[in-house]
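for the writeup, i need someone to sanity check this before i put it in the appendix. the sequnce is what the collaborator sent (i think, or maybe the updated version? ugh). structure was predicted straight from it, no edits. if anything looks off just tell me and ill rerun, i have time this weekend
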Amino acid sequence: MKTIVVVSQDVVLINFLDNTLKELYKTILFSNIQSALDSIYNSLPDLLILDTNPNDPFTITVVNNLKEDPIFNQLPVMMILSDDVVIPGWESLFVEDYIRRTDLENELLTRIDLCIARSERVVEINPLTRLPGNISINRQIQSRLDRNENFALAYGDLDYFKPFNDKYGFSRGDEVIKITGRLILNIVKNRQPRNSFIGHIGGDDFIYLVEADNMEEISREIIDAFDRIIPTFYDPSDREAGFITSIDRQSVERTFDIMTISIGITDTKTRFFSHYGEITERASEMKKFAKQFKDSCFKTDKRVT
């Protein structure tokens, strides 16, 4: 069931939207955009419905700032407008669609379906975590390199995920992937709200871009949160034992430790990169080095050549 966040101070409208949508969508209701942001940051919805005057500078600024973020520019926004409101220039309003109040009863569901479908066609995201995928990741990295920006790149990978997935099943494995993406997103955005980026390469591999001075502190917080949360996904007996029994890649049964996360880090201060493949390969090398250590850790590239 797709999720719609609704923002309105009109109680009558909120009740109408909730009653109309609740059988088809998971609706989360808020009275103002600021209170809705925590929900949006925590779990990206499929649509944001905004009941506001387009000349309200605070709300429009918040929405525009949200849409300027590479993570959230994929979120479709639909505005509900009163019949007497004059539509402003769209170049200053980052929304995908609007609907008049008098059209809600007859057109709302159709417009919602079209808005979500259009977004899914044109935006490349990972369907599990709803984070940007490889095309967006490569484009984001290359654009920063082309602008000669100073930034750090982290490549995160889960250790012992496959045996966990084999033992507990894909459903629980998917929950681990989703919670990992969510905690990385929340921590990165809390520490660096602007000009940061989080992507899901696929499987249990993630990437994030932040300012070099923030990278190690952010990575340390991600590791701490991961190590606290992940044991709760194991059965109590396995969690107490500190390992599970599963099958390795050679089809041999053996024991595997509780999942950890290995993070490889590099940045544009250490050397010049001209292509996204160069910097991601460097981070991947550091990630492989980090995986040689038993516990969750990050390793930062200090090489200058």
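The mean pLDDT is 90. Residues 192 and 203 are 25 Å apart (CA to CA).
thx in advance!!
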